[in-house]
Amino acid sequence: MDNIPLWVQILALACLIFLSAFFAMAETALMAASRFRLRHEAKRGSNRAIATLWLLERTEQLLSLVLIANTLLNAMAIALVTAIAINAFGLEEHVILISTGVVVFMLIVLAEISPKVIGARYADQIVLPASFILRPLLRAARPLIWFVNLFVATLLKLFRVKPAPNPHEAGLSSEELRSLLLESGNFIPQKHKSILLNLFDLDTISVEDVMTPRAQIEALNLAVPVEEIKEQLTTCYHNKLPVYDGEINQIVGILHVRKAVALLNEEDELTVEHFRALLAEPYFIPQDTAVFAQLQNFQENRERLAIIVDEYGEVQGLVTLDDIIEEMIGEFTTSTPSAARADTFGWDNRGECLLEGTTALRDVNKRLGLNFPTDGPKTLNGLLLEWLQDIPDAPISVRIGNCIIEVVQVQNQSIKVVKLRQH
């Protein structure tokens, strides 16, 4: 060392610290980089992304390379500083201790903490150029890595530790995908994010959650006079109507309203049999069918409307393809008055909201930011009846969670109108 100029030794020390910092920064950047973004870039033909993914597929070898390189570089830096200190101040115990302390502090600040912070913060920008350096190094150092890992594997077997699978090879669960969407920030437009999140919900809810309840179904009764049937058809807001004979549980078919209106113009003397001849076969489904499964069933069976029945065959409601689409993308323009009203409710200036008792709890939770339970009753009327265990007399108020619900009107053994107040 006496024959080597001091400036050369200091330059060598700076190089060692720089290389140690590079490996520390590259290691952190590789672990923090977005795998999905790298795969996207690789599909677009990015050689850097392909090289990076190649490295990430060999995580154990990569970590071994980084740790071996860091250990050797740090040891060489400590030895070099110690040699410089001894040459300058003599072979004294306190000289060795001080020089070792100084170089350890420098390595911690300059070669460990600072580069790792930078690597974590700018992972995507660092990982691609770093992969071009690490890939050939990994290939060149394979014999050394194999030799070191041989002892590591023996030690792990001695302590009966099984190597963990590569976490990046495992698929993501639906909840993990949901978390990725929620944390995507401004990378995905809010509307797109909302649709994707709603898609995940389709498997967790049943058609009962999105159906039109039995009491709100507009259906055609063949047991009434023909004049009443004509009047209902001319004022109907729907393209298709369930048709029953005397009682709603006796559904005999589905009537396409356009065909019926055309029949009104063609026939002078209409009878019930004319309408019965136009009926299509009704499509029945169980009330616990998952919404996503029903979307697939609609596609496979080429249907757009299904009648929901319970275990006893009693009609509970109906669901249409439009109902499921609205569950995914939100309300869209419709000529149905009830649908137009459902899209308008919200808190007023006094923190109150007036709603019908038939309003779905899921809609209330979405629009008002509440958290009513939806695993039992599906409407405000059902929730209050279950809560009170009786049909109440208006006015009466109850508090559920952070909301006060006032029963405003009761009619026909059900709660007709309620008022919600924020508490």
UniProtKB/TrEMBL annotation:
Principal subcellular localisation of the protein: membrane
Organism for this UniProt entry: Pseudoduganella armeniaca
PROSITE patterns documented for this protein: CBS, CNNM
Superkingdom, natural source: Bacteria
Domain CBS: 211-270, 278-335
Family: Belongs to the UPF0053 family.
SMART domains xref list: CorC_HlyC (SM01091)
Membrane spanning residue stretches: 6-33, 62-89, 95-113
InterPro entries: CBS_dom, CBS_dom_sf, CNNM, FAD-bd_PCMH-like_sf, FAD-bd_PCMH_sub2, Ion_transp-like_CBS, Transptr-assoc_dom
GO cellular component: plasma membrane
Pfam family, one: CNNM
A GO molecular-function descriptor: flavin adenine dinucleotide binding
Protein name: Magnesium and cobalt efflux protein CorC
